[in-house]
Amino acid sequence: MTHSTIFAFSKHVGEEVTFRGWVYNLRSSGKIAFLQIRDGSGFAQAIVSETAVPAPVWESTQKLTIESSVELTGTVSKHPKKEEYELQVSGLTVLQIAQEYPIGKKEHGPDFLLNERHLWLRAGTQWAIQRVRNTIINATYEYLNKEGYIKIDAPVLTPTSCEDTTELFELNYFDEGKAYLTQSGQLYLEAAMFSHGRVFDFGPVFRAEKSKTRRHLTEFWMMDAEAAFVDYIGNMDIQEGLMKYIVAAVLERNVVELGVLERNVAPLQTAVTKPFVRITHAEAVEKLHVLGSDIAADDDLGADDETILTQQYDVPMFIMKYPAKVKAFYMKPDPEDSSRVLCSDLLAPEGYGEIIGGSQRIDDYDLLVRKMEEFNLPRAPFEWYLDLRKYGSVPHSGFGYGLERITAWITGTKHIRETIPFPRMINRITP
Ligand code: 4AD
Ligand code: MG
Known about the structure:
The protein is α+β, with helices and mostly antiparallel strands. It contains 13 helices and 19 strands.
């Protein structure tokens, strides 16, 4: 008898194994009980036959409820056609008989499920989404380390904004006055870049955005990357390499999960093999007019604009050179048209929209001071950031991705609240 996990069943076909897990579903037809078992590593069906097991085992089986925890022993067999494994049970020990489980087999609305998030995480789709998210995290570290980046941890408590000042979570910080929860580690990464050349951070960031859309959380996970001697074109090349690596890793490592999610993998395969589209904001606006949008030439792209635009292409697309007035203060103006900046947003296909925001940064001290004045930013808390342009300033670029937005696209999940274990939105802070 070998201890195994469901994930490792393929190596034990025909053998007797023991493992522990939870009964996520069960049905009985007379003398046979079919138990759907989850053990963390995967899902399998365990078959208990009254005639094949000792009487006490059959009696225990009769007491089982959804989410009861069990230890099972039995012989592994493979489904004749699918990559699925079954267990012919010879022994069963009940660890706990679960009380009546609130999440039943019937359809539940999103509010009910979000209130039961601590239990909903056990559902097959939610299991699969978190495992894909885990692959995306690991693949990000792998790719960036391979490209010479080192991980630098940016602070969460900050004295300034990084992005839009209207979206800050504010708190009182002892005798120092106001502090804010970080919106992005970017400014700190720029400092560390002068020491290491290429750096990235990965952590929770906070936006007190009043947006109640399928793309917005108030707390989400961002990866910021920053590199010296890279312009806005090189910046897109790095992002494209990273995204292709991530998607390829998920396709390779999460076959079972993508199957559970019934994800059509064709668009993912295309994203790995085909170059991403790159167009300017001006070109995007032209296309949007043809598609029926009334976006103005100097407007930001709205969520609807992003949706209809990305439905035109089968790969992710970069939108370059947005109007300066809709982007952050630190973005370098386009030398050919100072009303625009050397930035790019990466939009995921299939209507998902923005997953990465990036730009070349202003490297000139005087210009950065002028831009900060235009944006009405206080000088004192940014002195350290201005210092970076006094001592060996260099051209540099970076970008930040939203982990939940990327996970939503890759898993084909409509609302990003399902891609984070415990979502925080303007109307939700529990569980
Ligand atoms: O475009 P954003 O605001 O860019 C920055 O914060 C830069 N400082 C990043 C950088 O250059 N280092 O945010 C980056 C990404 C977006 O593209 C989006 O994927 C995600 O973060 N994001 C959100 N995800 C969930 N909920 C929200 N409210 C989000 N706001 C942004
Ligand atoms: Mg953005």
